[in-house]
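Quick one:
INPUT:
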């Protein structure tokens, strides 16, 4: 199994009645095709689905992203998956908004496992 660090998680909202747009600014410089940033959603906090192509390699610049979040979603998280070897500067995410409403990100923990 791959060594993994599970990163920033965002547990923010209640259910909403229709698909909703998540927007955020992102920048990353991480090991290409070994380290990844994922945006994931859940409707129970246990089972997660990826809602965008994983981020890997270098973004070069900051980019703005918009992602459709399904109506049943109760949790969103940004998960950085890396290993014990080559690491870049990392993954940065800011200005996270849901339908234009700024969200407070909190990181409840960094979970380090499989070392
Ligand atoms: Ca790596």
């Amino acid at each position: 199994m791959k060594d993994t660090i599970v990163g920033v998680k965002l547990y923010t909202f209640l259910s909403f009645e229709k698909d909703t747009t998540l927007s955020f600014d992102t920048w990353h410089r991480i090991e290409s095709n070994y380290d990844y940033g994922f945006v994931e959603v859940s409707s129970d906090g246990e089972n997660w689905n990826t809602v965008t192509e994983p981020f890997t390699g270098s973004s070069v610049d900051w980019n703005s992203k918009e992602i459709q979040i399904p109506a049943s979603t109760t949790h969103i998280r940004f998960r950085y998956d890396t290993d014990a070897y080559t690491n870049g500067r990392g993954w940065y995410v800011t200005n996270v908004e849901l339908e234009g409403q700024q969200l407070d990100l909190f990181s409840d923990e960094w979970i380090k496992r499989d070392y």
